[in-house]
Design brief:
By secondary structure, the protein is α/β, with parallel strands linked by helices. It has one domain: Carbamate kinase, CATH 3.40.1160. Helix content is 39%, strand content 19%. The protein has eight helices and eleven strands. The strands form two sheets. It has a nine-stranded mixed sheet with strand order 4-3-5-2-1-6-10-11-9, sandwiched between helices. The protein has a two-stranded antiparallel sheet with strand order 7-8. β1, α1 and β2 form a beta-alpha-beta unit.
Length: 240
């Protein structure tokens, strides 16, 4: 904890798979607790932390049921699944002393606040972690786009894009092309034009238009989030 933070407010984009651990689908309590500990380290530095969580870990189990389904209906199922991920993450953070609020773009008043931008910013100012669930509240938009949108709305300085099993953005899929090379830095436009799997094109365009940098890093190393917020070069930096 010797290094000083270089960011004041960040948004962390967690995939659903980052909560899955060794399970085929669902959330592994040990993995959720480990992610919560990583967030606590950053929060304890005085950094204002917001989170957008995906639902790949749950939706993987529903993919058979969603096959052939109307796209909008399937997307709403995915949005509800992000709420199911936000709640155990909130619980894990609260159990280690980090005050947390879940705000959902879909109305689930019994378990989460509605998303209200000014309220979210006030929570951050008071030192609470805010988990944004329910995606954007609209079908046809991914949780990547939700992350770009919420980060822009709450004036986050950077998006920390957590990946599983890869150290950043590569020139090709490293699982298919052994010669693929890690790209330490590139622009949003480069990522869009080259079709690199950073975020979907809608999210990348929104980040580019608002000058919002993205750090893509490997979530498997539990020190990476803290390294990035302290200014270390980790993974790939996408910037204008």
């Amino acid at each position: 904890m010797a290094d000083e933070a270089v960011f004041r407010r960040v948004l962390i984009k967690l995939s659903g798979e980052s909560l899955m651990g060794d399970l085929d689908f669902g959330a592994d309590p040990n993995r959720v607790n480990a992610v919560a500990q990583q967030i606590k380290v950053v929060h304890d530095r005085g950094i204002e932390v917001s989170i957008v969580v995906g639902a790949g870990n749950i939706y993987r189990g529903m993919s058979g049921a969603a096959a052939g389904m109307d796209r909008a209906t399937a997307d709403y199922m995915g949005m509800l699944a992000t709420v199911l991920n936000a709640l155990p993450l909130q619980d894990a953070l609260e159990r280690i002393g980090v005050h947390t609020r879940v705000q959902s773009a879909l109305a689930v008043a019994e378990v989460a606040e509605p998303y209200i931008r000014r309220r979210a910013m006030r929570h951050l100012e008071k030192g609470r972690v805010v988990i944004f669930a329910g995606g954007t509240g609209n079908p046809f938009f991914t949780t990547d786009t939700a992350a770009a949108l919420r980060a822009t709305e709450v004036r986050a300085e950077v998006i920390l894009m957590a990946k599983n099993g890869v150290d950043g953005v590569y020139s090709a899929d490293p699982k298919e092309d052994p010669s693929a090379e890690l790209i330490p830095e590139l622009t949003h436009m480069d990522a869009i034009q080259r079709g690199l799997k950073v975020m979907d094109a809608t999210a990348l365009t929104l980040c580019m238009e608002n000058g919002l940098p993205i750090h893509v890093f490997n979530m498997d190393d539990e020190q990476n989030i803290d390294r990035i917020v302290c200014g270390s070069a980790v993974g790939t930096l996408v910037k204008t």
